[in-house]
Every structure is written in structure tokens, then in C-alpha cells.
Write a structure and sequence with these properties.
- With 234 residues, the chain is of the alpha+beta class.
- The chain has 1 helix and 15 strands, in the order αβββββββββββββββ.
- It has 3 domains: 1-56; 61-138, Sandwich (Immunoglobulin-like), CATH 2.60.40.2470; 142-233, Immunoglobulin-like (Sandwich).
- A hairpin with a 5-residue loop joins strand 13 (202-209) and strand 14 (215-222).
- Strands 2-7-6-4 form a 4-stranded mixed sheet, with no helix packed on it. A 4-stranded antiparallel sheet has the order 12-9-8-15, with no helix packed on it.
- It is 22% helix and 44% strand.
Length: 234
Amino acid sequence: MVSWPFVRSVVRVMTAIAIVYVSWVFLARYWSNRQFKPAGDADQARRNTAFARTYGGTDVKILQFYAREGNLTQGSPTVLCYGVLNARSVKIDPPVDGVSPALSRCVEVSPLKDTRYTLTAEGSDGHSASESFVLAVNPDAATLPRITYFRVAQHKVESGRHLFMLVFGDQNAEEVSIDPAVFPTLHGAPNGQFLVAPEQTTTYTLTAKGKFGHTAERKLTVEVPQKAGGGGEV
């Protein structure tokens, strides 16, 4: 049977161990806080300095100005994002709708070609700040107009005149024209044929015009013999 004096001795030892452990934990935390507090204070001081440098004072400042995409496919929209401080007015050139002074704002644009955008912010004191960048716009190769063929399909002589049947085919063309103009401008014609009767060797230029003004050309030289033969097909 365990005696009470022995139990009291064990309790006193365990209590002493617990006191030593708790004291060690608090002491370790104390020294840890003393060690890292200067570094934390230095970081906070740097953040305060950077904040004051950016947002302090009354001068007009441009905080940011960029496009969501660095390169844009023609016909696709993107957004320009900007932020200004202490600005009475703000504008973007070329003009963009929905622009007004704000710490952070984005507006939509859809340029059809490489475009330099310039942001200008004016302060209440009349001073201004500006930034600019070029947004690159690339054509969509899948929608570019193409002339797939342009050739002489038939040649015959009638009454001493040379007649040539010319044929063509195209893709993604909204308009098709020819020079010299032997037919009016065609709209939405994926292929066609026409007769020409040049008196001398002539070069014809076929032009296919597609979206956003892109064009494709192909030349065809029709050679007329110096001396016409009899009638019939050649």
C-alpha cells in the first residue's frame, strides 16, 4: 500500500516540473518576439514609406495603365485598365467611352489595327501626367480573303476577234473587282466567269476584299497573237 508521504512527494515533483515547463515556454516566446520585432518594424516602415510615396501629397499621379492582352486578334475586344490619383479630369486617346477619374477602372476597346493609347490625367492645379503604350493587333488568318484560282478557261476567235473566257474562285471575299474593269464589283461571289476581248496583250488584276479592309490580288496576263487566225476555237 502506497503511503501518503510518498504521494505528496510525487505531487510536489510533478508540480515543480510543470512550473519549469511553463516558465520555459513563456521565456522562449519572449525572446522570439524580441528577436523578430525589429525586422517586423522595419518591414512595416518600408510599407509605410512606399504607401506615402504613392498616395501622399496632392500631385496628380498615374498609378497604372495597361491592356489585359499584350497582343490582340483583330475583331476581338479587350479592356484598358487605369488608375489615377488627385485627378480632376482624365482622358484616353484615341477616345474611349466611360473614362473618368478613378483609383482603378477598366474600359472596353476593340481596335482594328496596332494602336497607341495615351492616358492623360489633369490635376486641380493644372498640372498633368500622361502615359502611353502600343496595343498590337494581329489579323485572323482564318478569315483573310484568298483567291484560289484565276485563269483562262477557253480561247476562241470569232470574226477575227480573240475571245477569252476567264474564271476565278475566292474565299472569305466580301467584294470582288477587276482592273481593267470588265465587270462591276461583285458582292459575295465565291466564284465566277466572264468574257474579255482585248485587242492586245493585257494583264488583268483580280482583287478580293474581305473583313476589315484586307485584300488579296492575283494577276493574269492574256496574250493576244499579233495576227488573228480564222474562226473557231483555239
